[in-house]
Amino acid sequence: MKRNIFILINTFIFSVLIWAYVNLNLMYTIETTIPLKLKSGKSQGISNDIPNNIDVVFKGKGWGLMKILLTKNLVYYVDLTSFKKDTRVDLIQNAAEIVNLPADVSVQSVNPGFIDVSFDNTITKMVKVRNNTSVITKDGYTIIGGVKVTPDSVKITGASSVVMKIKYVQTENIVFKDINSNISKDVRLIDSLGNQVKIEPMVVNVSYRLELSAEKTFEDIDVNVYGVPIDKDVLIIPPKISISLRGGVEELSKLTAKDIKIGINFKQIEADEQGEVEPTIELSDLFTLIKIEPQRFQYIIKKKQSEN
How far is CA 287 from CA 54, 69, 211, 217, 295, in A? Predict the structure, then answer.
């Protein structure tokens, strides 16, 4: 019985190998999308939109086409360094420049078939990195402060007409889930203008601080009025406030009522038409305000009596 099963398995494998040998030696065509990469000189800034990818139809034996489908770094490469002015490039004529193209595979067609390239003076400037990552913490944990991005600015190089319009570059959109400790991750920047702008570096580090979450209430904190004219006095009713904060256990343990600045600008009182104003609370971004009591305050303005 075992011998018969062994024979059946070998027969099946042999049949598959024969089928593969016969069929993968036949000619086929496939269409796939691959990156388009342009090489330009230091003074050649590409100022117009160039596609980052192109559609290519390949023809060849099954074995060669299989290599293309399995190759991760297949690139359609065009060298522009010999061009001195704006030009139209015939992509089908540059088919031989495809990186890692198997020898027994040829290019049948390219879409688009041509690209128009406009040049401008090249400049370099530094721009800020905008973070698109976020953290979902495990229950009972909180993020302390904001994200730290290193470096927080990167160098971009390209055509002056393009670079001058860029105010920032962005990280990839990544969500880190179920986090309960400090994290530090390298993330790539989004390169939406790959053939127009060079970004250095292309990878930045994002880091978050996490602590166990806690809440703390501070009661009877003085509410101060600032900006009061020298000839006036202001009485706040009630004169004190209570606030509740959420933050990390360690950071909350260090915080005192003296670290919390609560006040009302006299200009708020002058502009008020309701007889009540809301205080301004100066608070570190390490903490989240979850409750204040009371939320609004009445006031009495008195004129100072002149001294005789």
Answer: 49, 52, 12, 12, 18
